[in-house]
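Q: A reviewer asked whether we had any structural model of the full assembly, not just the individual parts. We don't, so I'm hoping you can provide one. Inputs are below.
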Amino acid sequence: MYKLLPLLMLLVAGSAFAKQETLTIYTYSSFASDWGPGPAIKQAFEAECDCQLKFVALDDGVSILNRLRLEGKHSKADVILGLDDSLLAAAKATDLLAEHQQTLPALSVPNGWSDSVFLPYDYGYFAFIYNAEKLKNPPHSFAELLERPELTILYQDPRTSTPGQGLMLWVQKLYGEQAPSVWQNLAQRTVAVTKGWSESYGMFLKGEADLVLSYTSSPAYHISAEQQHQYQAANFSEGHYLQVEVAAVLKTSSQPQLARQFMAFMLTPAFQQHVASGNWMYPVIDTPLPDSFAELTLPEQALSFSTEQVSKQRSQWLRAWRNAVIR
Amino acid sequence: MTKRNWWLPGSLSLFAILLLTTGPIAALLLQSREHDLGALLNDSYLVHIIWFSFYQALLSTLLSLLLAIPLAQALSRRRFIGRTLLLRLFGLSLVLPVILVVFGIVTVHGRQGWVNQLLQAVGLESVGYLYGLAGILLAHIFFNMPLAARILLQAIESIPASQWRIANQLGFNGWQLFLRLEWPVMRSALPALASMIFMLCFTSFATVMALGGGPKSTTLEVAIYQAIRFDFDLPYAGMLALLQLLFCASFLLLQYRFTSRSTAIQLSNLGLIARPDRQQLSLRLWDTLVLILCLALFLPPLLAIISSGLNPKLIAALSSAQLWHATRTSLLIASGAALLSMLFTVSLLITSRHLRLQLQRRRSAALMEAIGSIILVLPAVVLSTGLFIMLRNVADVFTLGPILVLLVNALMALPYGLRALQAPMERVSRQHHKLCESLGINGWARIKQVEWPLLRKSMALTFALAMMLSLGDLSAIALFGSQSLQTLPWLLYQQLGNYQLTEASATALVLLMLSLGLFMLIEGVLGGKDAATN
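A: Here is a predicted structure for the entire assembly that you could use as a starting point for your response.
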């Protein structure tokens, strides 16, 4: 009997462990990774919910939506975190998402926020990042980037990634009908189109290209974490495309209570303090920013399309991109 | 098996195979009907990927053969240390997991790879050529050049010694030997060889996925996968899959025509052929050049996989729980797939052999075996796509993931199993059926006392081969894989994509060890015969 005792204890402990409820969140890999905000947020939320928080990391933002559509009603996700404002209509059309039922505090999101399904948790502006030690004369406008064929770039696939889609919208906003020729121009100096942000940023840091598509706030990471000031965002005179990152609860969630608790948690300082110094984006409530953010440039003009406009033309724009880059 | 029930195992197995193949095809047909056919003609992307699929396959085939012909000649003229080992390695290339070789190629030809390190060491600018057509070609040549060289070498060695003697007396030089002796035997082997390589390259998945780099160098096979996982465009995916099915079926028909025409190649182990052109200085130089070029393409990626195992950071990477979890999943799926594949194969063959030998119905038997091989026209991605679409509304395809991957892998190994076991099983029946009948040994007793002892070696080999094929699969797992379902190839693919090269080295090493272990089992037991390629 004594020999069995440890085994029995293990069984009891095991079942107690299993009883704790688990909240499953689909997100993108840079959010969930060790160096992203995920681990700290998991710890903070678990401390107040008496539950387990599980991140399922997918390639990038658009992949979350694709994965949701593939799984349909059988999805194991309770919450999805990491879509952006331009995907709202497409995501709602799946009919898989529930209302967040939160009373919104005053949010410091550009252009405000009033959606009943999606809650924003951070925002930022897309920008090309360069290494000032290597590239002494960065482009000062999108037009200049197009006129200088020697500049090599890395960006993400708009079919899988929200920054990639952001660039697509940026080009569409600035050039409209001329977008295909812009894509062909860019294709000449594109080193790689990666599935997610992490891959292309990793390649950029290894010196594979002059510029990489990321955010105006990305240099803050290098300043805060590495005391390196050479990584800078190229400031484009035409303005930068705005991205608001959002989360939502699934209708099919087996933990609706926990999921809503997480939604509320997202808008508290416990979550928001990790946004600036983990996800390197701007928080949506008034939160002290790390010193490094003082060195950042804010775009003179924030560009955006309405959600309806994007959802109406997204697949057409995607096709235009695809058809232009194969030429 | 009792005498009356001879038809049962084959029918059950055939039924299962047909269900598992026609179901997905029907699902694809239904789905693709929703696609607007008029828009297809204006879809420049579709036109591009079809063109690119053909273009890269054609180039891959041409380059592989153009290198293989002089390589086979050089190998028949020269004896050198390591020649036997090299020929063994050539056999290995066909069954190595594709993603493993891609890892090797990235290590050699990537931006931070050996070639660029060498260039930098001598003060030259580094070059980036890996992603896109060049990378795809490098990988396809790696796989197909050795295979082609081996088969062409066999062809050269099948030339009777008497002909060499006559040529010797006539004083033929190297060129005349090629025209009069080598080319005729090679020519009979080439059409079948070329069409096989073309088909392998046309449906190549892992290579194009990992080295394609963007929409510009995407093939039909990869576009099917992307239509589902990138765009969630099921009608488009269904339409692409049907198109791929159509292409593959026509290639196979063409190949069938070629193979039936060409004469079968006989292995004649002459040892050293007394070739009159062995001593010519210019040919010596030429052969050295050819060997150096081919080995420079073939050996470095293999060495890279092994040498990355010497990475000092490897110990940490090897202790990753994720890696061992993936290893376990891979082994479970591979052994399950191999078992199921064996079950299908043996059941089918029990019935077809009875049809052929006892009932003298040769045509029905051949038809049964042909239906079993039907899977050859169905690339893994197409089959998986069909299964995916078929089951999507019924169940959670990602929970069923392991079972679906296992099923697809089992079916993919079926044609190989049928080929490997058909002859041994028939031989046993020819030699022992009458005796068993007269002694009244039937059912379980016959299996235990007669069949199993005589067949177990062939079965073990077939099992190992099926396991090896499944161990390298990336097509099915790419569609059904997720964070909770990771096999070694899938893990390696993701690590390569994220530039986690240390972790990738560890995964590659484990995958290499498993594949090598199985390969040595196959090659070792058969004692150097072409078990893997036949």
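A: Points you may want to mention in the reply: Residues 261-270, 527-534 of chain B have pLDDT under 50 and may be disordered. The radius of gyration of chain B is 24 Å.
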